[in-house]
Specification:
Length: 372
C-alpha cells in the first residue's frame, strides 16, 4: 500500500478520539462525571502539565518529543496513543504488518502535530481566549455525551438475556430468517425454491408478460410470445449461477407466485415459484459443541434484540429519572411544512391547468383549417 493511501486512512475519528484523551478534556469529563461543580475554568492549564503525556498517562520510557528539555511524549505515551489509534482504525494493525514505517508515520504526521499545536496555543496564550474555550468545551461536551451513550449502550447490552435457553429459543425461532444461519455450519441441506423464468430486454414487455401470466398459464403465455422458458431448478441463496436479486425475490415468493426482477442494464426477468423446499438445520444441541457457532448465535441474538432493548430501556429511564420529552415543536413544524407542501401542490395543479387551457386555445380545429 502506498504512503498516499495510508495517509488517506487517517480519518476524522482520530480527531475526536484524541480530543477525548487530552489531559484537559479528560479532567473536564471526570469533573462532569464525579462532581456537580462547574467544569474547569481553563482547560488549557491542564494541557500544560509536564508530568503527563498527550494520553494522560505518567511519563515512562525514552522521550520521543520534548519542549524546552521537558518531555511531552515518551515511548509509553506513544504506545497508548497507538493502541487508541488501532482501536479507531482496525486496519492499521494489518497495514503495519507489511508496512513497518506506519507507526513512525502515525507519530510524525498525527501525534507530533497535536503536541506542537498544543504548545503553540499555550505559548501564545490563545488557549485562554473566550472563543477557544467556548469551542473546546463544546467539543468536550460532544465527546462526553458520546462516551456516555457508549457506556449506556454497553450496560443495556449486558441486560440482554444470553442464557442457553434464550439462545436456543432465538435460534429455533429465527434459523430460517437470519442470514448468518444459512451458512453450511448451520444447515445440513439448503432450502430453496424450484422456479422457471423468462427474460426480456425491456420493462414494458416484461410487465405485459407478467400480467398475462398471472391470469393464464405461464408456459402457454411464453409460447404465445415466442419466449424460451428457462428451468432454474432448485434455487438457494448460495446458487452461484443465479442473479442475487432473483435469489432474494424467489426466497420471498410463495409457491405458484410470480414476480418481475430488474437485472439492470435494460435486462428483466419474470420468474414463477413452483415449489418450496425447507432447509434442514443442525439442532441447537449439535451446534453447542462448536464454540464458533455458539458465538455466532449469541452475536445475532444481541444484534436483533439490542434495538428493541434500547428502546425499552430508554422509556424506562425516562420514567426513572423523570425525563419529559416535548414533541409539540416538531409536530407543529411538521404540520406547517405539510400545509406549505399542500399549497405548493395546489398552485402547481392550477398552473398545469392554465398551461393546458392555453394549449387548447392555440390549437386550430379541422373546420377552421378548412376555412383558411
Amino acid at each position: 500500500m502506498s504512503l498516499k493511501n495510508i495517509k488517506k486512512a487517517f480519518n476524522y475519528i482520530m480527531l475526536f478520539s484524541s480530543l477525548a484523551i487530552l489531559p484537559g478534556c479528560t479532567d473536564w469529563i471526570k469533573e462532569k462525571l464525579g462532581s456537580s461543580e462547574s467544569s474547569c475554568s481553563n482547560c488549557g492549564d491542564h494541557g500544560s502539565r509536564a508530568t503527563h503525556t498527550v494520553t494522560g498517562t505518567e511519563l515512562t520510557g525514552e522521550t520521543l518529543l520534548s519542549v524546552d528539555g521537558q518531555s511531552l511524549v515518551t515511548v509509553s505515551g506513544f504506545e497508548d496513543f497507538w493502541k487508541m489509534y488501532v482501536e479507531s482504525n482496525p486496519q492499521a494493525a494489518l497495514i503495519a504488518g507489511f508496512y513497518p514505517g506506519l507507526r513512525k508515520e502515525v507519530f510524525t504526521t498525527l501525534l507530533v502535530p497535536f503536541e506542537i499545536a498544543k504548545v503553540y496555543l499555550q505559548k501564545t496564550g490563545k488557549d485562554t481566549s473566550p472563543e477557544f474555550q467556548k469551542l473546546f468545551e463544546r467539543q468536550c461536551e460532544f465527546v462526553y455525551k458520546t462516551l456516555a451513550l457508549d457506556v449506556l449502550h454497553k450496560d443495556i447490552l449486558e441486560k440482554i438475556n444470553k442464557s442457553p435457553q434464550a439462545l436456543r429459543e432465538f435460534y429455533e425461532e429465527n434459523r430460517d430468517k437470519v442470514r448468518a444461519f444459512q451458512d453450511t455450519k448451520f444447515t445440513k441441506s439448503s432450502g430453496g425454491t424450484s422456479a422457471i423464468s423468462v427474460e426480456f430486454d425491456n420493462d414494458q414487455d416484461a410487465t405485459a408478460f407478467l400480467e398475462k401470466a398471472k391470469s393464464g398459464d405461464f408456459m402457454n403465455v411464453a409460447k404465445e410470445n415466442e419466449k424460451e422458458v428457462k428451468q432454474l431448478g432448485l434455487v438457494t441463496m448460495e446458487s452461484p449461477e443465479i442473479n442475487y436479486f432473483v435469489k432474494v425475490k424467489l426466497n420471498e415468493l410463495a409457491p405458484e407466485d410470480f414476480a418481475k426482477v430488474d437485472l439492470g442494464k435494460d435486462k428483466f426477468v419474470v420468474v414463477k415459484s413452483l415449489a418450496k423446499k425447507k432447509a434442514e438445520y443442525a439442532s441447537f444441541d449439535e451446534l453447542m459443541e462448536d464454540q464458533q457457532a455458539k458465538d455466532i448465535i449469541e452475536r445475532e441474538l444481541v444484534q436483533v434484540k439490542s434495538v428493541e432493548k434500547m428502546k425499552e430501556e430508554m422509556e424506562n429511564f425516562k420514567k426513572t429519572y423523570n425525563i419529559q420529552q416535548n414533541n409539540t415543536f416538531f409536530e407543529q413544524e411538521l404540520e406547517k411544512k405539510q400545509a406549505e407542501l399542500g399549497k405548493m401542490q395546489k398552485d402547481l395543479e392550477v398552473l398545469n391547468e392554465d398551461i393546458d387551457a392555453m394549449g387548447a386555445d392555440s390549437k386550430v380545429s379541422p373546420e377552421e383549417n378548412a376555412q383558411a
